Amino acid sequence: MAQVSIVTSQAAGVIRDDDAMRFTFVGDSMTIGCAGDFTWRYRMWQHLDATLGAPFAIVGPRSELYDTGAGGPVSYEYGAPDFPAGARTHLAGWGEGWLHMAPVIADAVAAHGTDVLLVSLGLIDLGFYTDSGQTALNARAFIAAARTANPHVKMVLMPVIPNVRAESDAPFAAECDRFNELLAKAVADLDDPMSPVLLASRPPGYDIHEDTYDGTHPGPTGEHALAAAFADAMHQAWGLGGPYTPRP
């Protein structure tokens, strides 16, 4: 008989009728992807499917890709036809950052019974909305809010990977570096055995001129690199899955 568990919060609740581990991808334009993209979310789904060895689900309130022609998240044209519809869900948005996700993460975790959050945010905040100090405070608020919905939620946070703008904008590059320092401090401060928080490593050798198609958004090699950073962090720290092995 399937295990039954209940996750509740002040805002919403979900009744679970299975024991599947539930992952939610949270991010900005690098995570939602554009029409025709495979996305690093697809690469991560492949990895979990091949290595986890236990039931799992990808959950979240959205499933669309961003359509540059339409100027909005209205596409479902993923580059991988074998990406199951149920695994395409996420909480990611073009132009959204910690500022936008902190107020909505509790409802998303509660509504979908999330066990593990894989989070890649910050570049858009620093580029358009908040300085490094305020962005770090928003990241701390995000962590606190997620725990109100599930006190045992696990989180893996990706540091900001500076994009092509940082090559010609020294103050922006400095803010990226400063935020990553503050994010590492937040992880050290807020990590808890009941609700562990990991800081993933920047993918080794990641080159914005080779691994992205425009200096920001990952192409196929970049998608694998981002998925590997999350996968290897979970495997090394928690024993989840296995070492990342990219598929063609």
From TrEMBL:
Superkingdom of origin: Bacteria
Residue intervals of the SGNH hydrolase-type esterase domain: 25-223
Protein name: GDSL-type esterase/lipase family protein
PANTHER family the record matches: GDSL-LIKE LIPASE/ACYLHYDROLASE, PUTATIVE (AFU_ORTHOLOGUE AFUA_2G00820)-RELATED, GDSL-LIKE LIPASE_ACYLHYDROLASE, PUTATIVE (AFU_ORTHOLOGUE AFUA_2G00820)-RELATED
Annotated organism of origin: Streptomyces sanglieri
Stored Gene3D superfamilies: SGNH hydrolase (3.40.50.1110)
InterPro entries, A to Z: GDSL_Rv0518-like, SGNH_hydro, SGNH_hydro_sf
